[in-house]
Amino acid sequence: MIDEKIAVILRGGYAPGEKCHMGMKEIAFTPEGNIFPCERIVYDGSPDSSLCIGNVETGIDLSRLSCHMMDDGEINSECMKCSIRDYCVHWCGCANFHSTGYYNRVGPFMCAGQKAAISVAFRVLETLEKEMPGVFALHNIGMPTANAQKLFLANMT
After folding, report:
1. Dist CA 5 CA 100 (whole Å)
2. Contact 105, 76 (CB under 8 A)
3. What's the whole-model pTM score?
4. Residue ranges of the domains in the chain?
5. 6-15: buried (b, 16+ CB within 10 Å) or exposed (e) per residue?
6. pLDDT tens-place string over residues 117-147
7. Is 71 in a helix, a strand, or coil?
């Protein structure tokens, strides 16, 4: 988790294409052909589930799909004001659904966990830069991570 957060920080935050697109860029299928907006909310795979958005035989029911879609304007107002918002996965509809019952509302445990992970990642980066100046400079100019790893290992000896 910390490695992922460090990578996100080095990239300047999550890019729009990395964010949740439940039912649009991501869908899940059950063996019976039922369609869900994400593999993390398939549960029993029942077509009667309120989470099921269709079937491969009948297609996607757009009225069922729309209840799973969200945009940033619908996310918690606390997230909209948060200074670490760009590094957080507050946009994960499935994680939000599991913790709050809503796709666009972040639960308190998710928020606290993200804040802790991001804080630790920033401290790790700060420590590494102090102990090995320039270790992430190669990453920032687009050189392969293997070169950064070689520099890191060379500084460890």
Report:
1. 23
2. yes
3. 0.71
4. 2-9+19-156
5. bebbeeeebe
6. 999 999 998 898 888 777 666 555 554 444 4
7. coil
